[in-house]
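Good day; I would like, with your permission, to put a structural problem before you. I would ask you to consider whether the tokens describe a fold that such a sequence might reasonably adopt. The full record is reproduced below for your convenience:
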Amino acid sequence: MMVRNVVMLMLFVTVIAPIILYTDRLASIHTSSSSSSARDEFAQDVTAFPFNAQTGRLNLLPQELSTLKEPIGVVYSDNSTTSLPETKESEASTNHSHQVSARVLSTTTNEQDLSPKKDNPIVQVTQTLEQGNQLLADSGAKTATSEQNTNNASQNTLDQQSTQTSIKVDQRKSVKTLSEKNNHETTIPDGRVRHLKDQLIRAKVYLSLPATRNNPHFTREIRLRIKEVQRALVDASKDSDLPRNANDKLKAMEQTLAKGKQIQDDCAAMVKKLRAMLHSMGEQLRVHKKQTMFLTQLTAKTVPKGLHCLPLRLTTEYYSLNSSQRNFPNQERLEDPLLYHYALFSDNVLAAAVVVNSTVTHAKDPANHVFHIVTDRLNYAAMRMWFLVNPPGKATIQVQNIEEFTWLNSSYSPVLKQLGSASMIDYYFRTHRSNSDSNLKFRNPKYLSILNHLRFYLPEIFPKLNKVLFLDDDIVVQKDLTGLWSLDLKGNVNGAVETCGESFHRFDRYLNFSNPLISKNFDPHACGWAYGMNVFDLEQWKKQNITEVYHRWQKLNHYRQLWKLGTLPPGLITFWKRTYPLDRSWHVLGLGYNPSVNQKEIDRAAVIHYNGNMKPWLEIGIPKYRNYWAKYVDYDHMYMRECNINP
């Protein structure tokens, strides 16, 4: 009996008492957690499920808790309205995960604080099991939250990738469109003509190489292709001039050249041949440029057949008139200083007619305009006959012969003495010699004519006038010019348009600044100005004795050490610091040499000037500018048709 009581006591102490104590602890835990939310109960229930996990993984979980961080969901979208809800949802899920983690950790801490500090193995095992379940619950909650955030982040990443992909596709499309547009804009004009010419060069190179000459079949083929391409390029300067089968010939030549590339494997020989051809072409280009310059100068010097016929025909008619029929009306206006006077010195009947016609056409009151034309003895009768037959409306005309100016002789004018000297004549007509001047533009015979230098003797020619508008015979007037007479030149003698917009229109391009007489008195960078339309104050001219200044510098330049020939260099010197700059719209230059004159400047110009060799009455004139001049010529006139002068 005693033994049974002892056994029952030991059984109670070792088995039943621990069970009772464990049951009470579970009840206390249940009571403390009864106030938690439904999500906490879900986290506690997770610990009740069996896990086939190893204890090593459970032992690592506490270490991971201190370093594990939840991913931050970054949401990006092109549409701001869709990105806001996603962001809020991400923040909500993150806050929820923090709350669950805090509650699970709080429960575990309470359990550790309330547990008895005994070494009972059953209690230790039970407590360890509970901690493991709690950690599993915590890990499960974090895992669920992390999976949710990961899913959100993955979805956002996919959205970003799809958005970026669409952006890249759009960028590729735009780049492709831009590239196609640039390719379209940079398409080489007349590309087929250039391609065919390049093929000809390559074919000739292959034909001259030893490897090609050793292949008779290929030689015949490439010669045939060269002839075909040459026929296609006979008169073709642009793609529209090519024949319809030009593309077929281009493809055939390309195939033949491909064969030649296979036959010829010596690149060094090819390079050597191309260099030789390049050198040869450079020499030919230099020779052609020199010939072109010479022929251009020759054309500018010569008189077209029609313009040579016209003065002969007019002269014959003039001398058939009675003396009473040879006079112009309104001669009393010639010395009236209140009228608008023009000075025109020319030996070209047709050019002078265009200047007068264009000026009268645009004049507001033609009756107040007086034209003083001075010509040489050879063209005097023709010039008078033209204006007798074609009077300029109500305007007044005077035609004078330079031979009538008895005061103009070599004893008075140094330039006249120089022009008649043997050395000057030899200078003009020795172009065939090796030591002749390389610049052919100074060889123009117009510099031998005293008509070109009459502009320096205006007060002597018109002693009773106060102002004169000087006009060259290669200009066309497009507006009324009467406003020039009311300009205040501020004490200057010459009113002209400056031309220093380009470097070659400055003083150092006209004068020899290596000579001390020039370098001490003038600025090499000073602006040049243009002859062709100049208003001269003759009163100031006389006061400042301009003619004497001109004579003094002409004497110093007797051996052409200060400047070459012409009238602009001595004009720059004579009117140095005596020139009033006019607005550029009064006078636009360059139509005789520059095909790129601004069209707007031409349209608003009062006077356009065909300075240069490409005069509008010559065949070498620039075609697009010829009509400005030709519209003032009556090509249906009897004398024009008889001399076969056509537009």
